[in-house]
Amino acid sequence: MNKILVDIEHLCAGYYGEKVLDDISFQIREQDFWGITGPNGGGKTTLAKVILGLLPPYSGTVRFAESDLKNRIGYMPQTSLIDRKFPILVSEVIASGLCLEKTMTSVRKKERVEEMIQSMGLQTIAAKPIGEISGGQLQRTLLARAIINRPKLLILDEPNAYIDNAFEDYFYKLLQDMNQTSAILLISHDMDAVTSLTKQILTLNGKKHE
Fold it and tell me: Is the CB of residue 84 less than 8 Å from the CB of residue 132?
């Protein structure tokens, strides 16, 4: 059996004293591919925030098997949460995925950014501000940022919301390839994608239903 990366036990979390997640327990192991689904307000994004350390739980624990694992988590947020007016270029967004890399040289970082720009088909917009690109292009930019450091755990929040048909097949193949070395949590309302791609499904509606 694959090694446990994250062990979540009796997790309760929410906002302003209101519980969104109640007594959630499950494990994320190496090469797991979890589909996280459920209704709006069921706790899918809340779970991601707790794992990422962006939201402290009310109770319960989130244990990481390795001390540096938090630095090896790739995260792709919902595009609706991104401030499109923020003055940052596409290439800068992608490069920010390497901000915690301490051993990589600046030359190698630049090469990695160029590799991601090429693989995501973003060559023509790399120097544009994110406010001037389409939703699909922003989605690809955020995906590039999430995977540029070759994470051990990849969390994707509604990643196929704006994926265009031309990129969809490549995107799904990319996830399957990454799953050889990375555990993946795919948060999505798209049950076709969840059932066809993932190995395990966790339905959240306050409590969990595997």
Answer: no
| Residue 182 within a domain | yes
Q: Tell me the mean pLDDT in the region 73-84.
A: 89
Burial (Cβ within 10 Å: 0-12, 13-18, ≥19) of residue 21 = buried
Indicate whether 206 pLDDT > 70: no
Q: pLDDT of 97-129, one tens digit each? A: 999 888 889 999 999 999 999 999 999 999 999
Give a yes or no: residue 159 inside a domain.
yes
Q: What is the DSSP string of 137-205?
A: HHHHHHHHHHHTT--SEEEEESTTSS--HHHHHHHHHHHHHHTTTSEEEEE-S-HHHHHHH-SEEEEEE
CA atoms within 13 A on the CB side of 94: 31
- What DSSP line would sit under 17-62, residue for residue? TEEEEEEEEEEEETT-EEEEE-STTSSHHHHHHHHHTSS--SEEEE
Domain count, the chain: 1
Task: Find the CATH number of the domain harbouring 197.
Answer: 3.40.50.300
Q: What is the pLDDT of residue 93?
A: 97
- Residue at 192 is within a domain: yes
- Inside any domain, residue 41: yes
